[in-house]
Design a protein that fits this description.
With 238 residues, the protein is an all-alpha fold. The chain is built from seven helices and no strands. Helix 2 runs antiparallel to helix 3, helix 4 runs antiparallel to helix 6 and helix 6 runs antiparallel to helix 7. The chain starts with 9 loop residues before the first helix and ends with a helix. 13% of the residues are buried.
């Protein structure tokens, strides 16, 4: 309030306060949704040895996620000599918080589907192996794109240029490598962060489209084909 938002009213402050409060409470509910059933199933002896390890890992990850959230918010309350006018959380901690959430969500979904749906036994053809490798590469690219979005949010980099496909009047902005050393631009220069996020986003949807087209050439089970088609649909919406 002293540094930036002098005109904020009490009602406006309550809105952002309740947003943060709801997020914290929801996170704690998620933690209980993991830990309480896990303790109950463990006590009843319903978990096999491999699943005990899986459940412990998921419960540990959800606790780690909460700890990262506290660590991230803490960075927004620290005085920064070089940016008194713009209080914000660390983009590094924001990316870590988002990344761990994506890992937690993906691991939970994978574990749940492994129990609910029988695994398809497909012949290990050369085309199928290539499809699987390409799918793994596409997953990594999408994950990297999402993390780059956290840097965009943490630096307010979305406010620097609001035109597409060009950034202002240029395809490659003049201040792309303004910081020194050069590596610092990737994580701390708002222009470079937005530029990288655009490139990664375009690369992601290109990779998803190529994955879909390649999958059309391979005989796949209905469930797998629906998954690839849904991936393309969601990528286009995104």
């Amino acid at each position: 309030f002293n540094s930036l938002n002098h005109d904020m009213t009490l009602a406006e402050f309550k809105f952002i306060w309740y947003m943060e409060y709801s997020h914290r409470m929801w996170g704690r509910v998620v933690g209980l949704a993991y830990i309480l059933p896990a303790a109950y199933f463990w006590h009843r002896g319903w978990l096999s040895r491999p699943w005990k390890g899986c459940v412990l890992a998921l419960c540990g990850l959800v606790c780690f996620q909460g700890l990262l959230g506290w660590y991230m918010v803490k960075s927004g309350l620290e005085e920064k000599p070089d940016s008194y006018d713009i209080p914000r959380v660390s983009q590094y901690r924001l990316a870590a918080h988002l990344g761990s959430a994506l890992v937690l969500y993906s691991a939970s979904l994978w574990a749940g589907l492994s129990l609910l749906l029988p695994r398809h036994r497909l012949p290990e053809t050369h085309q199928l192996l290539r499809l699987r490798q390409y799918a793994h590469g596409t997953t990594a690219l999408i994950f990297l794109t999402a993390l780059s979005g956290a840097f965009v949010a943490g630096l307010d980099a979305g406010l620097v240029y609001n035109s597409f496909p060009k950034m202002g009047e240029h395809w490659i902005p003049d201040d792309l490598l303004a910081f020194s050393p050069l590596l610092r631009n990737i994580f701390e220069n708002p222009t470079t962060v937005q530029f990288d996020h655009r490139i990664l986003g375009i690369a992601s949807i290109t990779a998803v489209t190529a994955l879909y087209l390649f999958s059309r050439k391979i005989p796949l089970p209905h469930r797998t084909r629906m998954a690839v088609t849904s991936l393309l649909a969601v990528a286009c919406v995104q």
